[in-house]
Specification:
75% helix; 0% strand; elongated
Amino acid sequence: MMADNKQSFDEQPLSRREYREQLARQQRQGTSARPADTEPPLQDSPEMGRRQFASEHQQLTAEQKTAVLRRKLNIAIVALLAAIIAVYLILFFVG
């Protein structure tokens, strides 16, 4: 048991790319490096339903953001028009 711990400390940790390459090699060879208690691949998992929901929610959020920006833009346009009219009225009565 101590030898296993010592061996793991002596090895350099893998980078993400190296780990993914190692997994790809093992999958090509037909062995799996994933422990048995991990989730199945995403294609078979119920996460797809959650991902679809998140995608729709994100789309809805984008539509909501668009509506908020549209409203802010309309307010800015009305404020600018009011300011222009006010300047014309001031210049008309003063000058």
